[in-house]
Write the C-alpha coordinates for this entry.
Amino acid sequence: MKRDEGAAWSIFGYLLSGLLFWGGAGYFLDRWLNTRYFLLGGLLLGAGAAIYLIWLRFGRE
Amino acid sequence: MRTLHLLSTEGGGFVPPSTKDFNYPPIFGNSAYATKPIFLVILSIILISIFFIMASRKAAVVPSRLQFAGESIYAFIRNDVARENIGHEFMRFVPYLFTLFSFVLANNIFGIVPLLQFPAMSRVSFPYVLALFTFIVFHSVGIRKQGIRKYLKDIMFMPGVPKAAYILLTPLELATFFIVRPLTLSLRLFANMFAGHLLLLVFILGGDHLLKGVIGLKLISPFAFAFGIGLTFFEFLVQVLQAYIFTLLTALYIAGALADEH
Protein backbone atom coordinates (compact mmCIF):
# COMPACT_ATOMS: atom_id res chain seq x y z
CA MET A 1 0.00 0.00 0.00
CA LYS A 2 2.89 2.36 0.82
CA ARG A 3 4.48 1.43 -2.49
CA ASP A 4 1.29 2.54 -4.22
CA GLU A 5 1.45 5.86 -2.42
CA GLY A 6 5.02 6.28 -3.57
CA ALA A 7 4.06 5.25 -7.10
CA ALA A 8 1.33 7.87 -7.20
CA TRP A 9 3.83 10.60 -6.35
CA SER A 10 6.41 9.37 -8.87
CA ILE A 11 3.76 9.28 -11.58
CA PHE A 12 2.89 12.86 -10.75
CA GLY A 13 6.59 13.74 -10.85
CA TYR A 14 7.12 12.14 -14.26
CA LEU A 15 4.12 13.89 -15.77
CA LEU A 16 5.29 17.20 -14.37
CA SER A 17 8.83 16.85 -15.67
CA GLY A 18 7.52 15.64 -19.04
CA LEU A 19 5.35 18.71 -19.46
CA LEU A 20 8.00 21.07 -18.10
CA PHE A 21 10.93 19.74 -20.10
CA TRP A 22 9.43 19.15 -23.54
CA GLY A 23 6.85 21.90 -23.15
CA GLY A 24 9.66 24.24 -22.13
CA ALA A 25 11.74 23.16 -25.12
CA GLY A 26 8.76 23.88 -27.39
CA TYR A 27 8.20 27.24 -25.76
CA PHE A 28 11.76 28.40 -26.36
CA LEU A 29 11.74 27.02 -29.89
CA ASP A 30 8.60 29.08 -30.51
CA ARG A 31 10.23 32.22 -29.18
CA TRP A 32 13.37 31.60 -31.20
CA LEU A 33 11.64 30.83 -34.50
CA ASN A 34 8.68 33.17 -33.96
CA THR A 35 6.20 30.34 -34.42
CA ARG A 36 3.36 29.22 -32.20
CA TYR A 37 2.83 25.49 -32.55
CA PHE A 38 5.98 24.06 -30.95
CA LEU A 39 4.68 24.74 -27.44
CA LEU A 40 1.58 22.62 -28.02
CA GLY A 41 3.62 19.94 -29.77
CA GLY A 42 6.15 19.95 -26.94
CA LEU A 43 3.49 19.63 -24.26
CA LEU A 44 1.85 16.71 -26.07
CA LEU A 45 5.20 15.06 -26.69
CA GLY A 46 6.19 15.54 -23.06
CA ALA A 47 2.93 14.12 -21.74
CA GLY A 48 3.21 11.19 -24.15
CA ALA A 49 6.83 10.49 -23.20
CA ALA A 50 5.95 10.70 -19.50
CA ILE A 51 3.07 8.25 -19.89
CA TYR A 52 5.34 5.90 -21.83
CA LEU A 53 7.92 6.12 -19.04
CA ILE A 54 5.26 5.50 -16.39
CA TRP A 55 4.09 2.46 -18.31
CA LEU A 56 7.68 1.19 -18.56
CA ARG A 57 8.26 1.60 -14.86
CA PHE A 58 4.95 0.59 -13.33
CA GLY A 59 2.94 -1.22 -15.99
CA ARG A 60 5.29 -3.95 -17.14
CA GLU A 61 5.29 -6.30 -14.16
CA MET B 1 -20.77 42.19 -1.19
CA ARG B 2 -21.02 45.97 -1.25
CA THR B 3 -23.82 46.12 1.32
CA LEU B 4 -21.88 43.80 3.55
CA HIS B 5 -18.98 46.14 3.24
CA LEU B 6 -21.11 49.18 4.10
CA LEU B 7 -22.65 47.42 7.06
CA SER B 8 -19.32 46.53 8.50
CA THR B 9 -17.52 49.80 8.04
CA GLU B 10 -18.20 51.07 11.52
CA GLY B 11 -15.40 48.86 12.84
CA GLY B 12 -13.07 50.01 10.06
CA GLY B 13 -12.73 48.17 6.73
CA PHE B 14 -11.88 44.51 6.89
CA VAL B 15 -8.32 43.82 5.87
CA PRO B 16 -8.25 40.29 4.46
CA PRO B 17 -5.26 38.18 5.50
CA SER B 18 -2.57 38.04 2.84
CA THR B 19 1.03 37.04 2.33
CA LYS B 20 1.92 40.03 4.49
CA ASP B 21 0.77 38.04 7.49
CA PHE B 22 3.69 35.69 6.93
CA ASN B 23 6.32 38.41 7.20
CA TYR B 24 7.29 39.03 10.77
CA PRO B 25 9.34 42.01 11.88
CA PRO B 26 12.48 41.25 13.87
CA ILE B 27 11.70 40.68 17.54
CA PHE B 28 14.76 42.63 18.66
CA GLY B 29 17.31 44.72 16.79
CA ASN B 30 16.91 44.74 13.04
CA SER B 31 18.49 41.43 12.15
CA ALA B 32 16.50 39.47 9.57
CA TYR B 33 17.32 36.35 11.57
CA ALA B 34 15.64 37.38 14.81
CA THR B 35 12.08 36.76 13.60
CA LYS B 36 9.27 34.61 14.97
CA PRO B 37 9.72 31.64 12.57
CA ILE B 38 13.41 31.33 13.52
CA PHE B 39 12.58 31.33 17.24
CA LEU B 40 9.82 28.78 16.65
CA VAL B 41 12.30 26.47 14.93
CA ILE B 42 14.75 26.86 17.82
CA LEU B 43 11.92 26.26 20.28
CA SER B 44 10.89 23.13 18.38
CA ILE B 45 14.42 21.73 18.64
CA ILE B 46 14.45 22.38 22.39
CA LEU B 47 11.00 20.85 22.92
CA ILE B 48 11.75 17.78 20.80
CA SER B 49 15.01 17.23 22.68
CA ILE B 50 13.34 17.58 26.07
CA PHE B 51 10.49 15.29 25.06
CA PHE B 52 12.63 12.43 23.81
CA ILE B 53 15.26 12.75 26.54
CA MET B 54 12.50 12.60 29.17
CA ALA B 55 10.82 9.74 27.34
CA SER B 56 13.95 7.62 27.12
CA ARG B 57 15.75 8.51 30.35
CA LYS B 58 13.98 6.16 32.70
CA ALA B 59 13.39 3.39 30.22
CA ALA B 60 11.53 0.59 31.91
CA VAL B 61 10.10 -2.73 30.80
CA VAL B 62 6.70 -1.47 31.83
CA PRO B 63 6.78 1.93 30.14
CA SER B 64 5.46 5.14 31.59
CA ARG B 65 3.00 7.09 29.50
CA LEU B 66 5.72 9.43 28.26
CA GLN B 67 8.02 6.57 27.35
CA PHE B 68 5.16 4.86 25.54
CA ALA B 69 4.43 8.01 23.50
CA GLY B 70 8.09 8.47 22.56
CA GLU B 71 8.54 4.82 21.68
CA SER B 72 5.39 4.72 19.57
CA ILE B 73 6.65 7.54 17.36
CA TYR B 74 10.06 5.95 17.07
CA ALA B 75 8.62 2.51 16.35
CA PHE B 76 6.29 3.95 13.73
CA ILE B 77 9.16 5.57 11.83
CA ARG B 78 11.48 2.57 12.23
CA ASN B 79 9.01 -0.17 11.35
CA ASP B 80 6.34 1.33 9.16
CA VAL B 81 8.38 3.89 7.26
CA ALA B 82 12.01 2.74 7.23
CA ARG B 83 11.89 -1.08 7.37
CA GLU B 84 8.81 -1.41 5.21
CA ASN B 85 10.27 0.62 2.37
CA ILE B 86 14.05 0.46 2.54
CA GLY B 87 14.58 -3.23 3.36
CA HIS B 88 17.46 -4.84 5.22
CA GLU B 89 19.75 -1.79 5.31
CA PHE B 90 17.07 0.36 6.92
CA MET B 91 18.71 0.86 10.33
CA ARG B 92 21.30 3.31 8.93
CA PHE B 93 18.57 5.72 7.88
CA VAL B 94 16.30 5.56 10.90
CA PRO B 95 18.08 8.43 12.76
CA TYR B 96 17.72 10.75 9.78
CA LEU B 97 14.11 9.81 9.07
CA PHE B 98 13.17 10.03 12.73
CA THR B 99 14.78 13.47 13.14
CA LEU B 100 13.14 14.69 9.96
CA PHE B 101 9.71 13.47 11.01
CA SER B 102 9.75 14.89 14.52
CA PHE B 103 11.19 18.20 13.34
CA VAL B 104 8.61 18.71 10.60
CA LEU B 105 5.78 17.45 12.80
CA ALA B 106 6.61 19.74 15.73
CA ASN B 107 6.95 22.77 13.50
CA ASN B 108 3.72 22.00 11.66
CA ILE B 109 1.75 21.53 14.86
CA PHE B 110 3.00 24.90 16.09
CA GLY B 111 0.53 26.25 13.54
CA ILE B 112 -2.39 25.42 15.84
CA VAL B 113 -0.76 25.73 19.27
CA PRO B 114 -2.26 28.78 21.00
CA LEU B 115 0.13 31.75 21.24
CA LEU B 116 2.70 30.17 18.90
CA GLN B 117 0.21 29.75 16.04
CA PHE B 118 2.60 29.82 13.13
CA PRO B 119 3.89 26.87 11.11
CA ALA B 120 7.51 27.67 10.27
CA MET B 121 7.24 25.45 7.19
CA SER B 122 4.96 28.06 5.62
CA ARG B 123 8.13 30.06 5.04
CA VAL B 124 9.50 28.34 1.97
CA SER B 125 13.19 28.41 2.91
CA PHE B 126 12.74 25.84 5.67
CA PRO B 127 11.25 23.14 3.39
CA TYR B 128 13.89 24.01 0.76
CA VAL B 129 16.68 23.24 3.20
CA LEU B 130 15.05 20.00 4.37
CA ALA B 131 14.51 18.87 0.78
CA LEU B 132 18.15 19.73 0.04
CA PHE B 133 19.22 17.41 2.88
CA THR B 134 17.06 14.63 1.48
CA PHE B 135 18.42 15.31 -2.00
CA ILE B 136 22.01 15.02 -0.79
CA VAL B 137 21.24 11.92 1.30
CA PHE B 138 19.53 9.85 -1.38
CA HIS B 139 21.93 10.71 -4.17
CA SER B 140 25.04 10.13 -2.06
CA VAL B 141 23.61 6.83 -0.82
CA GLY B 142 23.02 5.71 -4.40
CA ILE B 143 26.43 6.88 -5.61
CA ARG B 144 28.24 5.18 -2.71
CA LYS B 145 26.37 1.94 -3.12
CA GLN B 146 26.60 1.59 -6.91
CA GLY B 147 29.35 3.95 -8.03
CA ILE B 148 28.58 7.16 -9.84
CA ARG B 149 28.65 5.67 -13.35
CA LYS B 150 26.25 2.85 -12.69
CA TYR B 151 24.00 5.05 -10.58
CA LEU B 152 23.63 7.67 -13.31
CA LYS B 153 23.32 5.01 -16.00
CA ASP B 154 20.48 3.35 -14.10
CA ILE B 155 18.68 6.66 -13.81
CA MET B 156 19.19 7.70 -17.41
CA PHE B 157 18.72 4.49 -19.35
CA MET B 158 15.76 2.30 -18.57
CA PRO B 159 16.38 -1.23 -19.83
CA GLY B 160 14.25 -2.79 -22.55
CA VAL B 161 13.58 0.37 -24.55
CA PRO B 162 14.46 1.03 -28.20
CA LYS B 163 17.54 3.26 -28.43
CA ALA B 164 15.71 6.12 -30.17
CA ALA B 165 13.32 6.47 -27.23
CA TYR B 166 16.20 7.53 -24.97
CA ILE B 167 16.21 10.95 -26.65
CA LEU B 168 12.71 11.44 -25.25
CA LEU B 169 13.05 9.66 -21.95
CA THR B 170 16.53 10.47 -20.64
CA PRO B 171 15.88 14.19 -20.12
CA LEU B 172 12.70 13.32 -18.26
CA GLU B 173 14.46 10.90 -15.93
CA LEU B 174 17.18 13.44 -15.21
CA ALA B 175 14.68 16.25 -14.67
CA THR B 176 12.61 14.04 -12.38
CA PHE B 177 15.49 12.86 -10.22
CA PHE B 178 17.42 16.12 -9.96
CA ILE B 179 14.85 18.91 -10.20
CA VAL B 180 11.24 17.78 -9.83
CA ARG B 181 11.74 15.50 -6.83
CA PRO B 182 13.38 17.98 -4.45
CA LEU B 183 11.16 20.79 -5.72
CA THR B 184 7.86 18.96 -5.27
CA LEU B 185 9.01 17.60 -1.92
CA SER B 186 9.59 21.08 -0.52
CA LEU B 187 6.74 22.88 -2.28
CA ARG B 188 4.15 20.29 -1.21
CA LEU B 189 5.01 20.86 2.43
CA PHE B 190 5.26 24.63 2.02
CA ALA B 191 2.01 25.02 0.11
CA ASN B 192 0.01 22.88 2.53
CA MET B 193 1.24 24.80 5.55
CA PHE B 194 0.86 28.18 3.83
CA ALA B 195 -2.68 27.52 2.63
CA GLY B 196 -3.73 26.03 5.96
CA HIS B 197 -2.49 28.99 7.95
CA LEU B 198 -4.15 31.43 5.56
CA LEU B 199 -7.44 29.54 5.78
CA LEU B 200 -7.44 29.69 9.57
CA LEU B 201 -6.63 33.40 9.44
CA VAL B 202 -9.56 34.06 7.11
CA PHE B 203 -12.13 32.41 9.37
CA ILE B 204 -10.82 33.56 12.74
CA LEU B 205 -10.06 37.15 11.71
CA GLY B 206 -13.28 37.24 9.69
CA GLY B 207 -15.29 36.04 12.69
CA ASP B 208 -13.61 38.64 14.86
CA HIS B 209 -14.43 41.36 12.36
CA LEU B 210 -18.06 40.28 12.03
CA LEU B 211 -18.37 40.46 15.81
CA LYS B 212 -17.53 44.15 15.65
CA GLY B 213 -20.20 44.82 12.99
CA VAL B 214 -23.91 45.60 13.36
CA ILE B 215 -26.27 43.12 15.09
CA GLY B 216 -27.01 41.13 11.93
CA LEU B 217 -23.34 40.49 11.39
CA LYS B 218 -22.78 39.65 15.05
CA LEU B 219 -25.24 36.77 14.59
CA ILE B 220 -23.21 35.35 11.70
CA SER B 221 -19.96 35.63 13.59
CA PRO B 222 -20.33 32.42 15.67
CA PHE B 223 -20.60 30.41 12.45
CA ALA B 224 -17.32 31.83 11.23
CA PHE B 225 -15.68 30.95 14.54
CA ALA B 226 -17.22 27.47 14.54
CA PHE B 227 -15.89 26.92 11.05
CA GLY B 228 -12.51 28.18 12.17
CA ILE B 229 -12.46 25.70 15.03
CA GLY B 230 -13.54 22.86 12.75
CA LEU B 231 -10.81 23.78 10.32
CA THR B 232 -8.30 23.79 13.15
CA PHE B 233 -8.98 20.08 13.70
CA PHE B 234 -8.75 19.51 9.97
CA GLU B 235 -5.45 21.42 9.93
CA PHE B 236 -4.11 19.08 12.61
CA LEU B 237 -4.73 16.13 10.28
CA VAL B 238 -3.03 17.92 7.39
CA GLN B 239 -0.04 18.81 9.55
CA VAL B 240 0.52 15.24 10.68
CA LEU B 241 -0.09 13.90 7.18
CA GLN B 242 2.39 16.29 5.57
CA ALA B 243 5.11 15.43 8.10
CA TYR B 244 4.45 11.75 7.33
CA ILE B 245 4.48 12.19 3.56
CA PHE B 246 7.74 14.14 3.67
CA THR B 247 9.36 11.34 5.66
CA LEU B 248 7.79 8.57 3.60
CA LEU B 249 8.95 10.06 0.30
CA THR B 250 12.45 10.52 1.70
CA ALA B 251 12.45 6.82 2.62
CA LEU B 252 11.15 5.86 -0.83
CA TYR B 253 13.82 7.95 -2.57
CA ILE B 254 16.52 6.31 -0.45
CA ALA B 255 15.02 2.90 -1.26
CA GLY B 256 15.07 3.73 -4.97
CA ALA B 257 18.71 4.81 -4.81
CA LEU B 258 19.69 1.60 -2.99
CA ALA B 259 17.86 -0.73 -5.36
CA ASP B 260 20.03 -2.18 -8.10
CA GLU B 261 17.58 -1.41 -10.81
CA HIS B 262 15.14 1.44 -10.91
